[in-house]
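Hello, quick one for you while I still have it in my head. I'm working through a protein record and want to make sense of it properly. Would you mind checking whether the tokens look sensible for this chain? I owe you a coffee for this, so here goes:
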Amino acid sequence: MSSPFNLEGRVALVTGGNGGIGLAMAHGLAQAGADIILAGRDSVKGETARAEIVQLGRRALFIASDLATPDGCERLMDAAARAFERIDILINNAGITARRQPEDLSIDEWHRVIATNLTSAFVCCQKVHPLMRLQGGGKIINIGSMLSLFGTSFGAAYGASKGGLVQLTRSLAVAWAADNIQVNAVLPGWITTEMGQSARAQVDGLNERVMARTPAGRWGDPSELAGVAVFLASAASDYVTGASVPVDGGYSISG
């Protein structure tokens, strides 16, 4: 009997997939049998990431994309659909931040963070929905954050975008359940990505607070997000929708 985690014959599109959590998830999906489309702004990183997927024995494509505008999102989705003629799995991982106190945050910074982190996910979901419905179903995974749950003084725009992603996930899960499309969110904790490492360097005392609150006693590695991606992308999660899954070493349950 086939494994419920087997992704052979499936095509996954991962935004922000040329590094960090997105690439780690892409690796996991490829190892489970999926072909991979990676999207991101940095073409050099993108081609390196694409080559890594090819080395795992899967078809892979990198599409240079700036998802800060709806047009950019639509161009990406059209190009991805043309390339492999189907999209079974969409991971909305593209994200930026503006690490400032709220009184110092410009309206342009606010709009760019919301556009890249939240609006892009909405537009990509809208564009993939008719394709997934025609195919008989699909999986959408939105990448939130601990700041979907908690506030920080330096993350107003980022936290608002990631909190919005959780509510978007719930709404789409309800709306598209009849189309056999499961929509879930992953909430990474403090992970040693470029964004996480820059936060640790820029925010006084952050590392100490994270270490003190995280029962696992360490920051997470991007590779530790691969397993939850495979689960939520596979038939193993067919009765799971609208969920937000923390992957945080226990941070969110620790007082």
